[in-house]
TrEMBL record:
Protein name: 3-isopropylmalate dehydratase small subunit
Any Pfam family the entry gives: Aconitase_C
Organism: Brevibacillus brevis (Bacillus brevis)
Top-level enzyme category: lyase
Keywords, alphabetical: Amino-acid biosynthesis, Branched-chain amino acid biosynthesis, Leucine biosynthesis, Lyase
Gene that encodes the chain: leuD
InterPro entries: 3-IsopropMal_deHydase_ssu, Aconitase/3IPM_dehydase_swvl, AconitaseA/IPMdHydase_ssu_swvl, IPMI_Swivel, LeuD
Source superkingdom: Bacteria
Family label: Belongs to the LeuD family. LeuD type 1 subfamily.
NCBIfam families: leuD, PRK01641.1
Amino acid sequence: MNPFVVHTGLVAPLDRVNVDTDAIIPKQFLKRIERSGFGQFLFYEWRFNVDGTPIDSFVLNTPAYKDSTILLARNNFGCGSSREHAPWALTDYGFRAVIAPSFADIFYNNCFKNGFLPIKLSEEQVDELFKRAESREGYQLTIDLQEQVVKDSEGLSYPFEVDSYRRYCLLNGLDDIGITLQYEDKIAAYEASR
């Protein structure tokens, strides 16, 4: 995984509650076994008409938010099925983080395992970010995981909480396999001694 230390990016405001994983990546696109290739299908039924043409009104199809790397969302983001493809699709599309007041537990945990940072802020803080993202063209945020703060160029600064183990893994670009491989020499030595 790529380490996540500090990221600055354009913010896309997705103003919907209860965004479920089938909306994030519809079931008909789950045939791949690799983690890549899902970004083109992200929010497919909201992004595209039946004939495959873009729905102009969807936030990611508007020029102002097309190259966003930080998704702003509402309560209960990632609810529904436990598919790990949801954070894969968000990451493959180019997002590095999602900010919302609350997340579905399984989605929240899957994000960390895939190098994608979910950030919980209060509803009031998220409301303020929506106002700024919708009223300022090119609105960007900087997420500093080392300092655990979200900030913008106008002085807004919101601290956020993250589990210390998950923070360590993201800062160092380690998933569960990467953590284990840190001890590869010791594992090999043990196996040789048996």
